[in-house]
Amino acid sequence: MKVLALGLVISLAGTGYWYWQSNENESDMVKAVQLQGPLPAQTALSPTPRSRFTPTPSTRKGYYNLDIVSDFTLPATKTITFCGAGRNLHVQQDRTKIFRRGFSAVDQTRMVPGVELWKDGFPAKGWKSALQLSQRAWIVYRGYFRDAFGLSWAENSEKAGETLYRTPPATPGARPAPLNRNTLFQASTELSGACFGFGDCPPGGTKNTYGFIFLDIENDNTSVGNRQEQANLYTYMIKTIKENISPQTQVGSIAPVLHNSVGYSRADDYKATPEWLWTMPARHTNNSRQRGMPDDIIGKSFGDYADFQMPGTYYVYPDFDYSIRHTGDGDRHWLAALLGEQEVNMKLSPKKRIAWQWLFNTQSELPNSSKAEHAAPPAVAEGMGIFYWFTGAYGALFWDDHTDLIPDQPSPSDPNQKGLGNDRNYTCYEHYVHGLWRLFKHHSDLFNGRETYLNEATECSYDGGQTWYKYNANQIKTHDVPFVRAIVNGDQILIAATKAYAQPNQTNKVMMRYVQNGYSFYTTITLKGDEIYLGRATMNQGRK
């Protein structure tokens, strides 16, 4: 093995010496080899409590219980929007329950009519929504642009070159042209009228008063020759939307993202460069002026205006299959995908990250994935509610393709309806919320804006402290070792660990250390099966 770099440093604790080397066969791995000296003293972690609850039986369909945990709220530095299924199961008894079960905002399709959102005409005089601005979210799908404004571009990106930005100004001396609503300007501007639904429009005008606008057009793929037209429209659209929103409203989109690993976690993903639609600056084309494109977006890109990026991935059934291999570079792996998507994209942009999350498999051509009938296993659902936040992400959008649930319905006779909506078991929601509860009920104080997310710099040993590694998510997967991630805030360290896909009778040990900023912290974690371990400790100052 060829050594590319070699140097001596003194251990931060004890009398031992270490040398650091990087190897050409381990491109992103940092390896430390102990030359001499005892292993420093270790500090035991305090395990985070688990809620004692009986999950809803797998035989019960269309139901989940939010009372499997006690009240808790997110820290002010994080956000989770509820666009899941079944708010109707508890909203009549307690409208505020989702806000005391880890969710901080709700999509408009799940809002309570007449209380949270006025849906029919203008609200009664003096009426105000019960929701604060930060609690409101709106997913704007392609149908808004296509159906209400006749913009076929939203369905077919190849029509970008014929889409009107706005009604072209009349030539001098000519009569003004009638208002044309079939323009991107009109579609983007009329989003400002959403304030009527909350009873808080500013005097004499309108401004969108949602806390979050999530664009879900999904027409970003286009031919190479059409890219400039597409980039122009996306840049103009988000700029116009931002000119018609409140100062507190944030705007982002499911696409473009800087890089989409499509649920995989390959080594090559870490070499990715930003995708073109995020970074391509607006430029005039042969007929863009005639279609109303202004000069003030020239040189700007969609990524310049977006308030947040939305890297993330839905799972397919192989991600939930414990009987197949998950350790190859091209193999699917639920946790490597969740972490890897964030690790890659955080390096491509410093903008805040909000991922779409769904607890069922998305439809695909992969085995057992033709319908969204398979729920995330307990460890996967709980792990999504914990490990994702160890990447330093700002938020999540919790989504489902079903809205209301009617529990205990008979199995449908139509085979095409089996495993869908009310025919699903929703216990996965309980495990997801349990993960959020374990993290934020007990450790919200660490998410105060002063924390450090170690991510790939989390340093672990799998041989009792003889060698130490800093692995990215792909390398943890391909080396088939436990996943460990840590957050440091002052003298506090919080650690999440799991051996993904492990069988119940398996036991795995892993050591973790943090030897930075004057601290010399070592600990050993014992993992049983595929449990999601969460533990915390106070670190003592070490000597350099």
Structure explained in plain terms:
By secondary structure, the protein is α/β, with parallel strands linked by helices. The protein folds into 3 domains: 1-38, no CATH class; 41-81 and 367-393 and 402-544, no CATH class; 104-261 and 274-310, no CATH class. The chain is 16% helix and 20% strand. Helix 6 (334-348) runs parallel beside helix 7, helix 6 (334-348) packs antiparallel against helix 9 (473-479) and helix 7 (378-387) runs parallel beside helix 8 (427-443).
What would the keywords be for this entry?
3 domains, single chain, eight-stranded parallel beta sheet, 544 residues, 20 strands, globular, seven-stranded antiparallel beta sheet, alpha/beta
Radius of gyration from CA coordinates: 26 Å
Spatially, the strands of the biggest sheet line up as: 9-8-7-6-5-12-11-10
How far the N terminus sits from the C terminus, by CA atoms, comes to 31 Å
pLDDT averaged over residues: 92
The biggest beta sheet, please?
A: 8 strands, parallel
Q: Helix and strand succession? A: EEEEEEEHHEHEHHEHEHEHEEEHEEEEE
How many domain units? 3
- Say how many strands there are: 20
Number of helices: 9
